[in-house]
Design goal:
The protein is α+β, with helices and mostly antiparallel strands. The protein is built from 19 helices and 20 strands.
């Protein structure tokens, strides 16, 4: 209830301290993002990857700093709730002219929930709902860079305009041949637009910061012509001769969705008004949730906030029940879903049956590794939550029994909020985008029969994509560990993505070996492993019996990816990664590249770069 007067003397000081904490966080976050430009210009690929990992930790560090300050200066945990109500109202006042109010709200929530009991996680004390609009936020600083620039080319002068667009980013490394690349871009634009008449409002709008990730920089914008809008992105890379090149033109929402996929590492983007960037990106990808766009921009906590608000909204306007997720049950994770909601919920079991030899903390460490690593479009990002409350009436009794049997330490059923409604409270939870498990997809292809041409094409694509996914993981220095089909999923775009992380290792930490020759006839006839095996020993030639039991799958796999069964494939990649090589894994088909002179065999890795300088 809104207080009649704001008369708690410390409330304003607490609100000011929390805003100071957020401003420090975003200042450091933005500075690190801005330095990505220099790392790209100097080809500091390892530095870029290191910065991407370290930036993920910035937020939690700043939250802890702020909590410590509030405890030290105000004894925050002992203050009455009336004071906290006033703190929130003062904080709203501080956000009125702020350039990142939605991020400041999330920071306030993160700090406050570290101090208050969860019964106070309601809109009176935290921002369950947003309080300040993010519409039309602009900086009044004369030196501020606008969110985007608009260019108005004449048809005959389109090359000049594209050249100006690229040069406006002032990259401090020369292009190999910018006129050549511009001609290719213009050719692609003209081919895409065809004979469409240029309307009076023809223009190109471009976001004013490049999007940096790994070894690439991406120029993102849209072509507007009449009532039509065409999203596009230009990948800028380092060429073989050391200069910069424009590598391709990506057009349309599908291409942009792949570039901003939930299975890829976060971009580094220098943004003063992040909500304006998200609004622009939504005009390019209308199906992409705002939360995923914030996450793709490195603002993962804001992504979590928006996801949870969307989830609560969905719960209110749906009536189906949570259930045990379809598919083969995992030995480490217990998975449930809500059929009407496109995500799955995963919690770690309390006990792991043999042969699993791991702990809860080790599993959490694997998920953190994936969060911080380059996911190369092949590992699903996860949202991690603690103390998540669900309505008890939405849980089936079967699901409750399953959790109580396999993860009793992770569940509580109570009315902790004191509102008369029973809740299921999960202590620690991972949430991932739902995909079709690859083993289920393959079984559907088998069931359709060899006479179904569409099913056979789907089978071929899925098996080939499975091998491509493993090779992309290898290029990112990741060995998936458990390579069974059930641990991979199929996205709506037909990409195969890995999502079971409890056995992943860095490729360079594994010991890839050949199966030694049998010492005797008994060894040769034995159905058991008779040779010594270390904890990180891997024998690629033994993959086939576990993966290729179906003749049709075996034929496709061997045609595309027989090299995955050869120890030399794995050892050669280890050697190159240890030597400092960073592979290119493109977020688009290599055939889209301007310099894709000849089709690459699907069994080859997608690297085209030389050793890193």
């Amino acid at each position: 209830m809104f207080p009649e007067r704001l008369d708690a003397p410390q409330a304003w000081a607490i609100a000011r301290a929390m805003m100071d904490g957020f401003n420090r966080h975003y200042r450091l976050f933005r500075a690190e993002s801005a330095r990505a430009k220099h790392r790209f210009e100097t080809a500091d690929w390892h530095g870029q990857q290191r910065a991407q990992r370290e930036r993920i930790e910035f937020y939690d560090l700043r939250v802890k700093e702020c909590v410590r300050r509030l405890d030290k200066e105000f004894q925050a945990g002992t203050l009455p709730m009336a004071v906290w109500h006033e703190v929130k109202l003062h904080y709203i006042g501080l956000m009125v002219n702020h350039l990142q109010p939605e991020l400041a709200e999330t920071f306030f929530n993160s700090v406050t929930t570290k101090i208050l009991h969860r019964t106070h996680f309601q809109n009176d004390f935290i921002f369950v709902r947003p309080a300040v609009s993010t519409e039309y936020i602009e900086s009044d600083d004369p030196a501020a860079r606008p969110t985007y620039r608009a260019y108005y080319p004449q048809a005959a002068r389109l090359p000049e305009m594209v050249t100006a667009i690229v040069q406006d980013f002032a990259l401090q490394r020369p292009f190999e041949d910018l006129p050549r690349d511009v001609a290719l871009v213009v050719q692609a634009i003209n081919a895409r637009l065809g004979s469409v008449k240029w309307r009076t409002n023809f223009q190109i709008q471009v976001l004013t910061s490049l999007f940096y990730r790994n070894k690439g920089a991406y120029l993102v914008g849209k072509v507007i012509n009449g009532y039509a809008e065409l999203p596009f992105a230009l990948p800028i890379l380092h060429g073989e001769r050391g200069g910069l090149i424009i590598d391709a033109v990506l057009f349309g929402e599908a291409d942009l969705q792949m570039l901003f996929s939930f299975a890829r590492a976060y971009f580094m983007v220098d943004m003063e008004v992040p909500s304006a960037y998200v609004q622009f990106l939504r005009s390019l990808m209308s199906r992409k949730p705002r939360g995923e766009l914030y996450t793709a921009l490195g603002l993962a906590k804001q992504g979590k906030t928006l996801f949870y608000r969307d989830f609560l909204h969905h719960l209110k306007y749906s009536s189906d029940h949570f259930r045990i997720a379809p598919g083969i049950k995992g030995m480490v994770m217990l998975v449930f879903d809500l059929p009407s909601f496109p995500y799955v919920f995963k919690l770690i079991r309390d006990r792991f049956p043999a042969p699993k030899d791991t702990t809860r903390e080790q599993v959490k460490g694997k998920y953190l590794l994936v969060k911080q690593h380059d996911r190369v479009g092949r590992m699903a990002d996860t949202l991690e939550y603690s103390l998540v409350a669900f309505p008890r009436e939405r849980f089936s009794d079967e699901l409750i029994a399953e959790i109580q049997q396999h993860a009793p330490s992770q569940i509580e059923i109570s009315d902790r909020d004191g509102d008369g409604r029973q809740e299921v409270i999960i202590r620690h939870l991972y949430i991932e985008r739902r995909m079709v498990p690859l083993n289920i997809h393959l079984q559907e292809c088998f069931d359709a029969g060899p006479q179904d041409a569409q099913a056979q094409r789907a089978l071929e694509q899925a098996v080939a994509e499975y091998g491509n996914a493993i090779k992309d993981l290898v290029a990112a220095n990741i060995f998936p560990g458990d390579m069974l089909w059930k641990n991979f999923g199929l996205t709506r775009n037909g990409k195969v993505v890995f999502y079971d992380y409890d056995e992943i290792e860095y490729l360079t930490d594994c010991h890839f070996r050949r199966v030694p020759p049998p010492r005797s006839e008994d060894d040769e006839l034995s159905g058991e492993v008779w040779w010594p095996v270390g904890p990180r020993d891997v024998f690629p030639e033994t993959f086939a019996p576990f993966l290729l039991g179906n003749p049709a799958v075996r034929e496709i796999f061997l045609r595309h990816h027989a090299d995955l069964l050869d120890v030399q494939f794995w050892q050669s990649h280890q050697e190159r990664i240890r030597a400092g090589h960073v592979y290119d894994v493109f977020p688009y088909d290599v055939q889209r590249r301007f310099r894709a002179a000849a089709p690459l065999p699907i069994s080859q890795p997608t690297s085209v770069s030389g050793a890193m300088p």
